[in-house]
Design goal:
With 366 residues, the protein is α+β, with helices and mostly antiparallel strands. It has eight helices and 21 strands.
């Protein structure tokens, strides 16, 4: 499908580290669907003369989008009910892919011209769900290159305090997101990440854009977002899932651009029956090594951000990550091991009192 004349399009350049992505959309709404998710993790800049790659976003005027059949074609299915990508045509430098973000959603088409360093995304007209392809392609562009260049993806939450990043590490459902949200509302921190961060070789922390999931027992409005119910360890767990735009607008949360790593808090459950409900101690090497290994164990997320088909011209495989290297990097900044008697206490426990003196930016009177 031919793209409309460039003079009538909405355009911007996204930059992260040394990488530059030109995004061109047939209307401002489609461009906003990218920039509202990727910024401020990425800076939105004026167009460069020679970006590394371009993504052009258009709409298919036909009802329901593409009608091309994809039977008996090679298909890539990402885990956990994720995107399905079916190769329609592959002629070396040119690739055409049929794409469904969810099995029951309308089909989009992705066309790659490697010689022109350009990807064209054609969406079903007016399909508000399919616009998720827009920011997905942009995230694949940046993450695939950063991971190959030695950055590491960690399962962590993060906020910005005093110009530096505070990382929260814990196991699944250990309270990372809860403490990040509490830091924003109770300490005046800026938000970096709910679930994933990218950590650079120089110690830069990028809050990786994902949807935000907050426990409903925090003081959050339910006027927006999606209410999720689940059962964890025999107990009902209710969360509110928000897009980054909903998180910012409805809760008044300020988002932070990338920052230097400044401090680390590891959340762990205490096994001592007589121990205080909440206590914090300085981090030791064993705790760091264990937390680093667990935080690096994100195979599904790495698949979601790998350019396995070459859709944005990136490397097909990402670089390896070493837990000892990450633990060494985390050990160079102040930190604490926060022990709680029960993870369900994290939304209300006096965690800041316990962290005073161990974590900079947490002061008396918070």
């Amino acid at each position: 499908m031919a793209a409309q004349d460039q003079s009538t399009r909405a355009e911007a350049e996204l930059r992260l580290a040394s990488y530059r992505l030109h995004v061109s959309a047939s209307c401002g709404t489609l461009l906003e669907s990218v920039t509202s998710v990727l910024a401020p993790a990425c800076a939105v800049m004026n167009l460069a003369v020679e970006p590394d790659w371009s993504v052009w976003i258009d709409e298919d005027p036909r009802p329901g989008g593409s009608e091309e059949t994809a039977a008996d074609r090679p298909e890539l299915v990402l885990p956990r009910g994720g995107p399905r990508l079916t190769v329609l045509d592959n002629q070396g430098a040119r690739l055409r892919v049929s794409a469904r973000y969810r099995p029951d959603w309308a089909t989009a088409v992705i066309e790659v011209d490697a010689c022109a360093r350009r990807t064209q995304l054609v969406l079903p007209t007016g399909d508000t769900r399919a616009v998720r392809w827009c920011d997905w392609l942009a995230k694949v562009f940046f993450a695939s290159r950063l991971l190959q260049a030695g950055w590491r993806m960690l399962h962590a939450s993060a906020v910005a305090i005093d110009g530096r990043a505070l990382l929260f590490l814990a196991g699944q459902r250990g309270g990372k997101s809860t403490l990040a949200h509490r830091a924003c509302t109770e300490l005046g921190a800026a938000f970096l990440a709910d679930d994933l961060v990218l950590l650079g070789p120089d110690g830069t922390v990028v809050g990786w854009p994902t949807r935000v999931c907050l426990p409903v027992d925090l003081p959050v409005t339910r006027a927006v977002g999606t209410l999720l119910d689940g059962v964890v360890d025999g107990q009902v767990r209710r969360r509110l899932r928000l897009t980054p735009a909903e998180h910012r607008s409805a809760l008044g949360v300020t988002y932070s651009p990338p920052l230097p790593l400044g401090m680390v808090v590891i959340i762990a459950r205490t096994d001592a029956p007589q121990a205080p409900a909440v206590r914090a101690i300085p981090l030791d090497r064993d705790a760091l090594a264990s937390a680093a290994a667990e935080a690096l164990d994100v195979p599904a997320q790495r698949l979601f951000t790998s350019d396995l088909l070459g859709l944005t011209g990136g490397p097909r495989t990402s670089g390896s990550a070493d837990a000892d290297d990450v633990a060494r990097e985390l050990s160079e900044v102040p930190g604490a091991l926060l022990r709680v008697g029960d993870p369900t206490m994290v939304p209300t426990a006096p965690v800041w009192d316990a962290l005073i003196g161990l974590v900079p930016g947490v002061a008396v009177g918070t």
